[in-house]
Amino acid sequence: MEDLNIINNIIFTVEAGGTLNGTLRVPGDKSISHRSIMLGSLAEGVTEVTGFLEGDDALATLQAFRDMGVDIEGPDNGRVVIHGVGMKGLKTPKEALDMGNSGTSMRLLPGLLCGQNFNTVLGGDASLSGRPMRRVTEPLADMGAVIGTTETGTAPLSICGDQPLHAIDFTLPVASAQVKSCLLLAGMYAKGRTCITEPAPTRDHTERMLTGFGYPVERVSLGNGRASASLEGGGKLTAAKVEVPADISSAAFFMVGASISEGADIVLEHVGVNPTRTGVINILREMGADITLSNEREVGGEPVADIRVRSAQLHGINIPEDQVPLAIDEFPVLFVAAACAEGETVLTGAKELRVKESDRIQVMADGLKILGVDAQPTEDGMVIQGGGAGSQLGSGQVESHDDHRIAMAFSMAALRASGPIVINNCANVNTSFPSFVELAQGAGLKITC
Ligand code: S3P
Q: Which of 247, 329, 402, 403 is catalytic?
């Protein structure tokens, strides 16, 4: 794997300065794209998906279902047509399913695979093979599933089919939509009513899409931001049309880029603004960002809006912990915003960042230090002293650690740097945002690769 990465080393070089302008549409939402393939494959009938993210992660999910006998047309300009095989219609794959770099595939698929009547093995790349999987395998085992991991609780995962599953009533120890979704998917195959309670709100695309595919899900708000979702096993999914909105996690790079660069004015079109995903907007606004939403509408059960962002002088804040799960993928670029803000920004309650595609606390702190920023990593967050109005970040060479969001976050940092920023190992930007370089160039970022 390492050799392959060296051969494929893609380096981003971003010249300092410039600004962002124009109207852009970033690619489709990664979370929704994954789920559209999963539910479309298990549904009865033909599901048409538009706006599908043609990035490596969602394509890994798509390929896995092809490997299990599902006829899937496309993707063709974001259009995918899935000929659903029904809840029990998947076929034994010839070999191990390759999840690549995709945590969502690796954590959601076991939920539905333990309900099949065949065995499967799920593997992934070096980064994914280092990420914790017991958070899904342990509760699945409580439901009666038989799943093997490595001794350290990581992939590859070996899933034994043909095991009778029973429902559980489970409170998530970490606020994780991947774990919640995995268990709800398994719940469809279990006897009884599976109820999953979250300690804080997490993205609810699975619940929304299940409802859209005609599978009843009951959701109860428990106060203090806690909610539960439950469903009865033994139901079926009916094919649906899925229109995937643009990914707010990809839009976030441009939201920060426009906020920190002088004279910026961009409109990000048709972005998913599901309230379980809008932490980045809430946090940036609290830091003084100039963000307005227009054309708010609902598309296929998901709220969508156009987002206008103009330059603003940001100031440091204590990031409210209740916003952390709602912005969990956006912290690399929010750290860049904090580095340009006036005063101190403190993040706490975000230990999960240490087990993402990279240890995003350490990796961002290391890179920001190379750019001359006072960034102190803590066990569950970071303390950043921002430079304030008119300040510049330094220049230099930073490592992405094969993490797409680190690569894109440091690209945006160049808008406020004193010299070029060179970012190593950027191939994985393809996992979530294959057109990043072209779109960013078009908007005014001086990036080449
Ligand atoms: C995702 C959930 C989040 C997020 C990931 C996608 C999903 O992970 O970081 O990129 O699609 O459910 P966690 O569930 O680990 O918080």
A: 329
